Amino acid sequence: MGALVAVVDKKGEDAKEEAVAMLKVLEGKGTEAFGIASAIKVKVGKSPEALLSLDISSPIVIGHAFSKILVIDKPQPIKSEDAMLVFEGRLYPNTSEVSDAEIVAKKLWQNRENAAKDLIGKSKGNFAFVIAEPKRLIAGRDAIGAYSLYYGENDDTAALATERKALWKIGIEKADSFPPGQMAIVNKDGFKFAPVRTLALPRTKQTTMQDAAKKLQALLVQSVKDRVSGLREVSVAFSGGLDSSIVAFLAKRSEVNVHLFHVSLEDQPETETAKQAAEELNMPIRIFQYREDDVKRVLPNVIRLIEEPDPVKISIGIPVYWAAEAVANTTFRVMFAGQGADELFGGYKRYLNDYSKYGKQKVQEKIFEDISGLYKNNLERDFKICNFHGVELRLPFATFEIAEFAKDLPLELKIGSASEQLRKLVLRRMAENLGLSRFIVEKPKRAIQYSTGITKTLRKLAMREGLSPNEYVQKMFIEVFEKRK
């Protein structure tokens, strides 16, 4: 686990220094080693600077910043006769004693382009990868996009990286999210994308609440089972709400020890709710409470990791940062969370406004837009934050199979009416069928940025400087990245 980079020098010059510069930017708390490679030469060292001694002389260079999560994880790139691979992510389930990257490598060395398409189109998992050949790169990302990957180019260079700032470092100002479910061929002419496995437009399929809940349960039980495979214990980022409670419940039912981690500012009522939910689930919970000064402390780091001056993303990112930080200070290295459920099953209150103003069709369109954009709006943010702390984030709701199922559900199985206060109706029915308590099943949705008190605190910090929240985070964004130029 860790971070990847890949560079193509369009003028045919050695791309080693650019790759090393990018790796320096991507070092996290748990980074143990760095590696770079051309199609035929590879070197792994303890620091990016140690890689500069490798005589590559290649316009095609890939690199990896390695953080060990599981015993099977190994530094990369991985070598074949005339190509190299960096693979970031997991295939589910992996019950072998071989790393995910090594499993992928064996699949990719023969007929690499078609094998890469098969990896994207047929594998269960969340991942991003890049293959270095003598004259081109082959890159890809899974169909949901839980692991971040960005790309961009200028007149001299085409490049990819786990974080935007690595591309900014080498003069690529416009860094876009690599589209999930697609493969790209990258050479001196730039990027050429090909869709492999992407979500089709929704086609409502009539079904009953009972049948939909049964199907959803089967999908989610399998997703959790796949993701806990090989683990004895896991941490769960726990709000006390429906989504994280379901994830925790199913993980425990899969016979792993589950430890709940709850973070919030002091004196927030949701903390007592989380304690009660933990009691209902009969699971140990660790409570971490923070103050306004703690928000100010982590704000620059969160902005640097999110790489966007977005107050909403920052308000959500701060609790994720605290949860990952808390987990990183224990023996746990894998954290489960319930992200994705609100997009998939109509959990956000804002859907009610569209329902009242524009009707059911507009809400369906908006939900599909949010499912399709889940990677950009939520998953990339949370992955980058957890990755910085050396914590692997696993998201059972964020699977292509569940997304395909959810997008075609009738709206009335998600939102009963324009005044529906609970929403996510089919998920609640599934939770009820599983045997979760009514306290959890009927708990109203409250967004994490409000339940933890972060949005209110950011507003207070901004007002003290006579700024709006947008102006305040924009000012801090400039300060954070000006200091690191």
Strand content: 15-25%
Gross morphology is: globular
Q: Quickly count the helices.
A: 19
Query: What is the straight-line distance between the termini?
Result: 26 Å
Return Rg in Å: 22 Å
CATH structural architecture of the largest domain: 3-Layer(aba) Sandwich
Instruction: Provide the number of structural domains.
Output: 2
Q: Mean of the pLDDT scores?
A: 94
- Largest sheet, strands/sense/barrel: 7 strands, antiparallel
Which stretches are low in confidence, meaning pLDDT under 50 for 5 or more residues running?
Answer: none
Q: Structural class, please?
A: alpha+beta
Write the CATH homologous superfamily of the largest domain. Answer: HUPs
- Which class of the largest domain in CATH terms? Alpha Beta
Strand order of the largest sheet: 3-2-4-1-10-9-11
What is the total tally of β strands? 18
Helix content: 40-55%
3D architecture notes:
- This protein folds into 2 domains: 2-195, Glutamine Phosphoribosylpyrophosphate, subunit 1, domain 1 (4-Layer Sandwich); 209-471, Rossmann fold (3-Layer(aba) Sandwich), CATH 3.40.50.620.
- It has 19 helices and 18 strands.
- The protein has helices at residues 16-25, 100-108, 112-122, 164-169, 209-228, 242-253, 269-281, 292-306, 311-328, 341-345, 350-358, 360-372, 374-388, 400-407, 425-434, 438-441, 448-451, 454-464, 469-483; strands at 2-9, 33-37, 42-45, 60-66, 78-79, 84-91, 125-132, 137-141, 150-153, 157-161, 176-177, 182-187, 190-195, 233-237, 257-265, 285-290, 334-336, 392-394.
- A hairpin with a 4-residue loop joins strand 7 and strand 8.
- Helix 8 crosses helix 9 (311-328), helix 9 runs parallel beside helix 13 and helix 11 (350-358) runs antiparallel to helix 12.
